[in-house]
Amino acid sequence: MSHCWEKTLISEYSTIKQALAIINNEAMRVAVVVDKDNRLRGMVTDGDIRRGLLNDLTLTDSVTKVMNLNPITVSQNISKEQLVELMERKQILSVPLLDTEGKVVGLETLHGALSKNLYKNPVFIMAGGFGTRLRPLTDKCPKPMLKVGQKPILETVIKSFIKAGFSDFYISTHYMPEQIHEHFGDGSQLGVSISYVHEDTPLGTGGALGLLPDDLPKDLPLIMINGDVLTKVDFQRLLIFHIENDADATICVREYDYQIPYGVINGNGNKITSMVEKPIQRFFVNAGIYVVSPHIIESVPMNHKVDMPTLLEQHMNERENIFMFPIHEYWLDIGRMDDFNRAQVDIHTLGLD
């Protein structure tokens, strides 16, 4: 039994945001909802929250709106062998231990779930942009090589993938590529493989896919990410989501709120039907992280200029098989100077430096 299981407990009166903080900060990756007497009310996983967000819930809603009301539980007296057999059969990674009164007295995890998985899926990083909005910092340095904390943004991105179990990297370059080559080489110093594709002219966020070698795995999706994105997204869960949905492509999306600074009037002719003071509009925006199946990559000709939204929209019209994956973990697109300054502060609290 994990020694930190008590940190996963959360009151039934808590919000989704409070449950999310536990899921993101604790190794158990679940929140266990209990009443005032520590009796189990439900469990919340990363997937429960994502489904809630897609159903228009907000982080301030009650955790009871997303929790699983009937999670699998076991007696605190169950043997280790029985517990492992149950968890493997039910394909669950954690299970609460209850006493005879239904109170939570522990949380057990499947041993293998906490070990580091290794992935052969390629990771493709877009690092060719000019970074014009960060001038003069980018006059003599490509944006992905700007330092956030003690190391370049691109190094932080690569190391976050290495930590998650990925080892096969491709980097797309255009602006000042020699600085990227010199810093990373073939990746051997990091214990991974790094190859480069060079855009002689900018090909858009999707066009660089046409430069990838023909010997990529034909049965594994590729993860694609902009080289200026800092995130703690769970890449394993992203891949599982993509595979389980048999998706052609999966786009990571981030909820974005925009408050209209005026009262909005709705009417029918000259007659007012409703008035809303400074309403908040909620949208999902592209987070610059994708999972792409091999046939999408193969559809991009060499040196063909196309942006990812345009490319994926073409495939969406053909098969309607493009999915979105809401991310609630930390995410920052370092596109402007205030983003860069914010990253300098955030990096020390994220465990990425």
UniProtKB/TrEMBL annotation:
Checking SUPFAM superfamilies in the record gives: CBS-domain pair, Nucleotide-diphospho-sugar transferases
PROSITE patterns, from UniProt? CBS
Question: Which Pfam families does the annotation name?
Answer: CBS, NTP_transferase
Q: Which UniProt keywords apply?
A: CBS domain
This protein is called what? Alcohol dehydrogenase
Gene3D superfamilies xrefs: CBS-domain, Spore Coat Polysaccharide Biosynthesis Protein SpsA, Chain A
Q: Where is the CBS domain?
A: 1-59, 67-123
Where does this protein have coiled-coil stretches?
A: none
**Any keyword Coiled coil?**
no
